[in-house]
Amino acid sequence: MARGGSTAAPPAFPLPLLLLLSNAFFACCCLAAPPGALVTNVPGFAGSKLPSKHYAGYVTVDEAHGRRLFYYLVESERDPAKDPVVLWLNGGPGCSSFDGFVYEHGPFNFEAGGSAGSLPKLHLNPYSWSKVSSVIYLDSPAGVGLSYSKNVSDYETGDLKTAADSHTFLLKWFQLYPEFLTNPFYIAGESYAGVYVPTLSHEVVKGIQKGDKPIINFKGYMVGNGVCDTVFDGNALVPFAHGMALISESIYKEANTACQENYWNASSATCDEALSKVDAVLGGLNIYDILEPCYHGTNTKEVIPQNNKLPPSFKDLGVTSKPLPVRTRMHGRAWPLRAPVRDGRVPSWQELAASVPHGVPCMSDEVATAWLNNDNVRSAIHAEPVSSIGPWELCTNKLDFNHDAGSMIIYHKNLTSQGYRAFIYSGDHDMCVPHTGTEAWTASLGYGIIDSWRQWTVNDQVAGYTQGYENGLTFATIKGAGHTVPEYKPQESLAFYSRWLNGTKL
Questions:
Q1: Domains, the chain
Q2: Catalytic: which of 242, 428, 483, 493?
């Protein structure tokens, strides 16, 4: 008995122990992965056995509307019982996360079939992120990829509704897969997922604090070439182009003087005129990777005679380390130059294609389209058939999407100040979301530097540069990479991904 005759308070359990006990109880009361979700056959893959288990299917996030989100889970090839679980989101808004699955870090490399529209051939990807983690590829929001709603009003959506639905998805998904409740959980994505990731992370943290069940063992998030803030992103391109020697010193000085470093929102005719010179000089470049043509494969080097006197580095431009040709379009926000995401309605890809003089550059996704619109593939991965929900498109025009979450800086500040780890990375040759803006807003959070700017290496070669801040924030660039880093730097992307997840230095 305590002094005064009152009963002593029960002992307080530390939060990690409470999480472990709660999730252990929850797991005992629930079944493991739903057997109907197991993918037993992957059309196009001729191998005798997959290196890990795959699951796919739908989670209904709104019963009344019939709003269903599609996911594809690739279990870790290493130790799925202990390895991190990572949710992957592609951007757009309106683009399918099968972009990441097919073209970036999924379990397969896709080889085009013998004729247009025929079933592609699948080969194991030696640099799949499933080598070190279980990855959930989620099509979000409804209307994107293989996700859909029976109520078309759901296709009028935005950042906040998308984050709320994705959080509902996660809570229901972990009910279906309770065996992963104690695994470290991360959220990752690229491009417009620079909005999806922090807003969803915010919802997850709010849910943990409210006591939503099951309790998600959320540890942090990562964003690649992600949009963040109108001003920082909008003012990034001109300094990037100057630093990359794409515009001359005189053009840069003229723009700088006329616009007073406010490039995204020109306030005078003089500024507009100066920026039109910038746009004219940059026209024709691949906005997603200034070093690359729109299409290249393993035989591109043959275009240059071997006895040519060009340095080896120039002969290698356009050559990928992947064993198969890379697609003819790089993923990303195909905005016109200097057009950052602003508050309000976000135009679709199709609208952008109509507004840009030469259309959205490098658009072609034959392999993914042929695979995901094949009836046998749809059946094998438990997706609704084309006859029911329509064809798969990389980026849809179904949505009426609003950017209603504002700047992401306050989200990043809030999450990192609570101790959640954040990894922000950029391909250093991406002109769609230039690293100059990303590095600037990362520094603007005001955290002290604990790991000064330095090289990081893969196989004794410099792979990029990194800087570490307080509160678990890391910024990194990947040398020679564009907007979709894993597509063109698969070995390097697996290296930084694995090291960061494991908490080791790049």
A1: 19-231+368-501 (3.40.50.1820), 234-341 (no CATH)
A2: 483
